[in-house]
Amino acid sequence: MDPATVAAVLDPDDKSKLINVAKSVVKVSFPPPNRGREYLDRWYTGIIIRWDVHNKTAMIISGGCFDRDIDDKSKSKIFVHYPYMEDDGFIEAKLLFFSAFYQLSLLEVAFQGVLLDVPTQIPTFGSTQPKCGDEVFSLGRDKDLSLVVRHGTIMKEGCLIELRQGYLFLDYELPEGGTGGPAVDHQGDVVGLVMDCDDDRAIILPISVVLSCFHM
Questions:
Q1: SS3 letters across the chain
Q2: Which of 110, 133, 159 corresponds to the end of one domain?
Q3: Which of 49, 120, 143, 213 has the fewest CB neighbours in a 10 Å radius?
Q4: What is the CATH number of the domain that holds 67?
Q5: Structure confidence by residue, pLDDT tens digits, 107-157
Q6: What whole-number distance in Å separates Cα of residue 153 and Cα of residue 155?
Q7: Does 169 fall in a domain?
Q8: Is the per-residue pLDDT at 76 higher than 80?
Q9: Taking residues 45-52, what's their average pLDDT?
Q10: Nearest partner of 211 among 90, 147, 78, 122, judged by Cα
Q11: Of residues 171 and 75, which shows the higher confidence score?
Q12: pLDDT in tens, 187-208
């Protein structure tokens, strides 16, 4: 297991709550333009926000998943990897909405095959507003679908432009592929989405802002 993940989750109660959230955390891969699934060397993290068990469909929010210079993003391929499937948990996603301002994607997937586990309950979203001084965990998936966790504090300092856009800054870096993963508080509630920042720090976008982008 990733040593930083072990160090981030020391309290058994926190571990139990994060495991519940992790059942909704997926890996989201996106090949370069005009390339197929054999070129999936780039990925983000995503989280399931709606789950239809009967029809095996899910709605997922993640990072932008696109090069900024792509004009027609509807033609770009995005693949979701779900770790709780009998096969490789790999399926192409449908882009429902893209926020260019916040670089967020809303995806839909229809799972095929046997699901070994499903989220019994989607994590609580937007019950609390993150603020400076709060401690949060960020959850992500690595290239092998293993869960990676980081833990830290929301800081007061940050670039004025990002602060005006609603972002908050964290005092740690994200692991590779961590962009788009959930920020979770000690109650096990999802309070935001985390993203990489240019100065090697992570930023968090409050979940209320994220959901408002998709009118939810």
A1: CCHHHHHHCCCHHHHHHHHHHHCCEEEEECCCCCCCHHHCCCEEEEEEEEEECCCCEEEEEEECCCCCCCCCHHHCCCEEECCCECCCCEEECEEEEEECCCCEEEEEEECCCCECCCCCCCCCECCCCCCCCCEEEEEEECCCCCEEEEEEEEECCCCHHHHHCCCEEECCCCCCCCCCCEEECCCCCEEEEEEECCCCCEEEEEHHHHHHHCCC
A2: 110
A3: 120
A4: 2.40.10.10
A5: 999 876 656 566 557 888 877 789 999 999 999 999 899 999 999 999 876
A6: 6
A7: yes
A8: no
A9: 91
A10: 122
A11: 171
A12: 999 999 999 876 677 899 999 9
CA distances from 132 to 125, 141, 170, 194 (A): 19, 26, 9, 15
Claim to verify: residue 129 and residue 208 sit in the same structural domain: yes
pLDDT at residue 118, as a whole number:
62
- Same domain? 9 vs 34: no
pLDDT for residue 69 = 46
**Do residues 204 and 129 make contact, with C-beta atoms less than 8 angstroms apart?**
no
pLDDT of 56 reads 79
For 35, the domain range is 25-110
